[in-house]
Specification:
The chain is an alpha+beta fold and 409 residues long. 50% of the residues lie in helices and 21% in strands. The chain has two domains: 176 residues, no CATH class; 214 residues, no CATH class. Strands 3-4-11-8-10-9 form a six-stranded mixed beta barrel. A two-stranded antiparallel ribbon has the order 2-12. A two-stranded antiparallel ribbon has the order 5-6. The protein is elongated.
């Protein structure tokens, strides 16, 4: 009997049912899209933010007494627990040299580094590491060095020396002189514009520091820092330390890297790490707020539609009460209708939301988005919550209908 009443109700009021269905489906679609993006946004935004610079600095520990790190240890960085979060790294070896070109001469910093080095790690996939990966914002007028005697010059130094791409310059350290062919002039807006950059192996030879590096910049995907992440590991219990170590905080990833690099000290670059964490938290909050706003708007639309429907169905409800239907039976009819519409709206909303999330992901991040399994039940539950929330006031109004007044007209 209940199902026959619900069926007849749908057939007699197709426009009203369609309106409620569309309201629920649109709410579920928007919620699915926003939640789907929110589930991926931290990872995708972290990848985007990695293009703005490294977030971990690796340098010799105090015990080294101003020493150097070993270049041979660098491949170990890609073997740590969080190795898949390490998106790139590059070493530096600094020295002071007499740099001359075209009759002009000055003392300046020469930096040996990797530009795009093919790194082979036993048991792991090969990868390309270097400045090109962790500092893509560097603007090089010319090209990147490829041979041992090629170099790029910072824009400020190049201007003082009158050097452009295609020219040559000499770098002298301790009576040893090396001639470099300038293949590019780099603009960064920072201190790098005052330096000469050349392949690491060449600068090691010039400085007589074979196999040594001064520092390493590491770029890693991390989660936003919270109060627990900022806690001192030395004060943690064993359980707390395990939780901290197995969470991709910038501090725990830095600890990972420090453990494999002998004589090193790894520390987060807090200006970058803090800004990233704050931005990701705000983005997630915005996505959650928009999701709630979409559901509230959908519930309001459902409530408005049902209120209009209840006004039309007042005689029907009054007649059911007159022939003996109690509050529970009337509630069962309307809740049953709402449940069926919400399930159908949730399924359609999930399908539409997936498509909407894909469009947003391709437009904003230029990539596809993977739909997590939990989104489907979330869409159904969201649709059901919207339907129930929207039907509370109309149902209460229906239960307060007095048969005598309505049937008397």
């Amino acid at each position: 009997m209940l199902f026959r009443i619900i069926k007849n109700s749908f057939l007699k009021r197709p426009k009203a049912v369609l309106l409620v269905f569309l309201s629920i489906a649109m709410g579920a679609a928007v919620a699915t899209a926003f939640l789907g993006i929110a589930g991926e946004i931290s990872h995708k935004m972290a990848l985007e933010l990695r293009s703005y610079g490294a977030n971990i600095l690796l340098e010799p520990s105090a015990a080294q007494g101003g020493g150097f790190l070993r270049e041979d240890d660098l491949p170990k960085i890609k073997t740590v627990f969080w190795k898949y979060n390490i998106t790139g790294f590059t070493p530096y070896l600094f020295g002071v040299a007499d740099i001359s070109a075209g009759g002009k001469k000055e003392r300046g910093v020469i930096s040996g580094t990797w530009f795009a080095k093919q790194l082979e790690v036993p048991g792991e996939d090969s990868s390309v590491q270097g400045i090109k990966g962790i500092a893509p914002w560097w603007d090089v007028q010319g090209r990147w060095p490829e041979d041992a005697d090629e170099a790029i010059v910072g824009a400020t130094m190049a201007k003082r020396l009158g050097v452009v791409a295609g020219k040559e310059l000499d770098a002298t350290v301790g009576g040893r002189t090396r001639r470099f062919h300038v293949v590019g002039v780099v603009t960064t807006g920072g201190y790098e514009e005052e330096q000469l950059f050349a392949p690491l192996i060449t600068v090691q030879s010039l400085l007589q520091r074979q196999g040594k590096v001064s520092r390493v910049l590491v770029s890693a995907l991390t989660v936003p820092m919270d109060d627990f992440g900022k806690k001192d590991p030395a004060s943690m219990t064993k359980e707390e330390y395990e939780k901290w170590y197995c969470t991709a905080y910038v501090t725990s990833v830095a600890k990972n890297v420090e453990e494999v690099m002998a004589g090193s000290r790894a520390k987060p670059i807090w200006q970058i790490a803090s800004a990233e964490g704050s931005l990701l938290k705000k983005l997630n909050s915005v996505m959650l707020f928009l999701t709630v706003l979409a559901l509230v708007s959908s519930a309001t639309a459902v409530s408005t539609s049902l209120m209009a429907s209840m006004s039309e169905r007042s005689p029907e409800i009054a007649l059911m009460k007159a022939v003996g239907a109690d509050r529970l039976q009337i509630s069962a009819i309307f809740v049953g209708e709402t449940l069926i519409i919400s399930i159908a709206g949730g399924v359609v909303g999930y399908l539409l939301g997936n498509q909407l999330a894909g469009i947003i992901s391709r437009t904003v991040f230029n990539s596809t988005i993977a739909s997590p399994l939990w989104l489907f039940p979330t869409a159904i539950i969201s649709a059901f919550v919207v339907a129930i929330a929207g039907s509370v006031v109309p149902l209460r109004r229906a239960l307060l209908i007095e048969p005598v007044r309505v049937l008397k007209g």
